Amino acid sequence: MIDLSKLEDYKGTGNKPADFDDYWDKALAELADFPLNYELTEIAFKSNVARAYHLWFTAPDGARIHAQFLTPKETTGKKFKGLLQFHGYHGDSGDWVDKIGAVAEGFVVAALDARGQGGLSEDNTVTAGGVMKGLIIRGMEEGADNLYYKRVFLDCAHLAKILMSLDFVDETRVFAQGASQGGALTIACAALVPEIKKVIATYPFLCDYRKAYNLGAQTSAFEEIPYWFQFRDPLHKQENEIFETLSYIDLQHLAPRIKAEVAWVMGLQDEVVPPETQLSAYLNITSKKQLIPVYEYGHEYLPKVSDNLQGFFE
């Protein structure tokens, strides 16, 4: 278990690229010029409180992206809170019925399927590079503009903009939540859409790649990075170039853009997403925030946390 007191000033390893903010500002400007392009198709759904829809939109690169979308039964003339939900690595948006409780509490819920993973969203990233055991490195060999996670982060922002555009959603009361990769996408979305009000991020992935590598990533969620070196560059001739490219999708550098209030949940014995990597992003957040450490737990179900945060999304 790490000693948080010894990491109070830790701001991550690796340098923020000089053009980092220009990189993301350009991407967001291109997204802003692109139509929202969404379609809603209602599904048969037995619930006393909720209606359910497939939401599809077309990303700027042409990929068709899917989200589960649930609303209260009657929306005419009303304004509801919005809730964005993001799932873990390789997974999907989960069971539809899991969202009924949030709808009953007055939320319109949009749950993204990350492209090319377990859900319905497609990934059309074209890459000649290796994709070994994961998606962090997808498109990496072509440079920062072809990174898989650049596209996913923008998908999150696109979905947030769709949710905020609806006349029955209060755009000033939109929230986001997720765990692991979902926590990472929550943080990325809040960074790219500063209008988001509050977020709950549970042990977020995708922070401080070089630190994760140095800690021995073969046994963590970052395992694809050492595998890439092992099979594509065993002499590490491209090491600096690779980590510089990954810096563009490193949450430690996106974190200062966040305006939302952040609740960050961390299992201090997490060996899948090491706490040190998470702190690189958390400690760079300048908005109101709280760290919720769970001392005897790792990358797993964390009891009592949800009860502790009940009512946070107000």
TrEMBL record:
<dbReference type="InterPro" id="IPR008391">
    <property type="entry name" value="AXE1_dom"/>
</dbReference>
<dbReference type="InterPro" id="IPR039069">
    <property type="entry name" value="CE7"/>
</dbReference>
<dbReference type="Pfam" id="PF05448">
    <property type="entry name" value="AXE1"/>
</dbReference>
<protein>
    <submittedName>
        <fullName>Acetylxylan esterase</fullName>
    </submittedName>
</protein>
<feature type="active site" description="Charge relay system">
    <location>
        <position position="299"/>
    </location>
</feature>
<dbReference type="GO" id="GO:0005976">
    <property type="term" value="P:polysaccharide metabolic process"/>
</dbReference>
<feature type="binding site">
    <location>
        <position position="89"/>
    </location>
    <ligand>
        <name>substrate</name>
    </ligand>
</feature>
<feature type="domain" description="Acetyl xylan esterase">
    <location>
        <begin position="3"/>
        <end position="306"/>
    </location>
</feature>
<feature type="active site" description="Nucleophile">
    <location>
        <position position="180"/>
    </location>
</feature>
<feature type="active site" description="Charge relay system">
    <location>
        <position position="270"/>
    </location>
</feature>
<dbReference type="GO" id="GO:0052689">
    <property type="term" value="F:carboxylic ester hydrolase activity"/>
</dbReference>
<dbReference type="InterPro" id="IPR029058">
    <property type="entry name" value="AB_hydrolase_fold"/>
</dbReference>
